[in-house]
Amino acid sequence: MVNDPKKKVSITHDKWGRIEVEFPHKGYLLLLIALIVPYLLLTGFILGRIDWHPSSNTLNPVAATNTPAVAPTGSARGIPLTPGPWGNMSYRRIFIQSPEEYLDVSTYQNSDPRWFFNSETSRGNVLTLLNQTGLTSSQRHQLENAPWEQAANGTYVAPPADLVLSLSLPVRQRIYSRLAQSPENPWQLYPCFFPAGNVEDLFAKDGLSAQTLALLKQLTYTHGHLLFFADLPLALRQLNDPAEKMRLAKAVSRRSTLLTGVRIDPDSNVDALLAYWARAGQNKDLRPLFEGLSKTPGGPLPLMAIIPVRAGSRLFTFPSPSITAAERENPAWSAFNFFRDPPDDRYSDPLFMKQKLDNDYYPVFSDPSYGDLVFLMDSAGGIVYSSVFIADNIVYTKCGGRFVAPWILMTIPEMQDAFSAMTLSPDQLKIMYYRNKYY
What we know:
Layout: E1 8-14, E2 17-22, H1 28-49, E3 79-80, E4 88-96, H2 105-109, E5 115-118, H3 123-131, H4 137-144, E6 148-151, E7 154-157, H5 161-166, H6 169-179, H7 186-189, E8 192-195, H8 199-202, H9 210-219, E9 220-223, E10 226-229, H10 232-238, H11 242-251, E11 255-263, H12 270-277, H13 283-295, E12 301-302, H14 309-314, H15 323-328, H16 331-336, H17 350-360, E13 361-364, E14 373-377, E15 383-391, E16 394-398, E17 407-411, H18 412-418, E18 430-436
Antiparallel strand pairs: 1-2, 3-4, 4-11, 5-7, 6-7, 8-10, 9-10, 11-12, 13-18, 14-15, 14-18, 15-16, 16-17
Helix pairs in contact: 12-13
């Protein structure tokens, strides 16, 4: 508070008291500047030193089930990983999208809109099941009058578009989790997925219209820590502009991934780092690099320069769009061939993969290490998804079996949420680690 400058000036300093000074009018401005400017400079300095992307949300494998699936984007300096034998590492989150030439909008739009319910061999059983999901009476009536078709292994129903659009988030989640248990429902089984958050913020830079953003928000639903989107064909049919259709298809193709690296400086224990990272004959290549960096400090050594050349060259890329490659270069093939150059195509055969897993690997129940295979397994012991452990809580993987799926880095909880669509809950999948006996 400032009183009459010709008399006494009172300047509030803090809540505990105030400083009162008495001076002539000519000195008022100079004294006010002398008192206020240092505080402004100090405040600016403190604000500039604050990391507005806190690193408390680190990636701890011991607490994987409690870790958010998608960690924060982070600042330019990166967010540090939990300390461990992998050394001093940090990460930044980025998003990559499929090339436009890989996106077959016409085929997506013309996908079969029917729902298939396996093991439900009658219309009445399906209606009973759907009535338990929370449908309104109007929605139930629409389904009862929709086209139905009986198949040998289940039942098809073609829900009206306006019914699908009108589903609430929890009802959509319940129905689609059930549909995801059948390969006949590929969009529910392999949905697009994004970090949970505000749709407008997630897609703010994709150039989508307000109408498209509203449609996208209406059709997303939650699964674990992620947002799922399984209605791209329906959404495309609601749009008229071909350019907007492509923008939507590209926007929802995004994959969240991590840029990470190891910082090596004069204080680094090179031998300890090599004991962790030099696997499968990599010591001869990594030791000169690590020793050189320890004498010439700089920025982090990118992970792409540490992992095997073939695996590193694939990271953040998409395979060539051929049917053969799409069938071969799936998550399991990529995980088992992580250290192999050239790769062994026999790992595209599930029987061969199981045989090699039984003969050449053993399960690990303590902390995993670089190069260990990380599997999501169902209650019957079947492998649902495969990846390779890197460090802390980060895995290397091919994000799906199709050519529109890139090789990326992701967290284990994110992997658990993203590839458990066929289960009613991500917690139904068990995480198992396997280590090679020979390297």
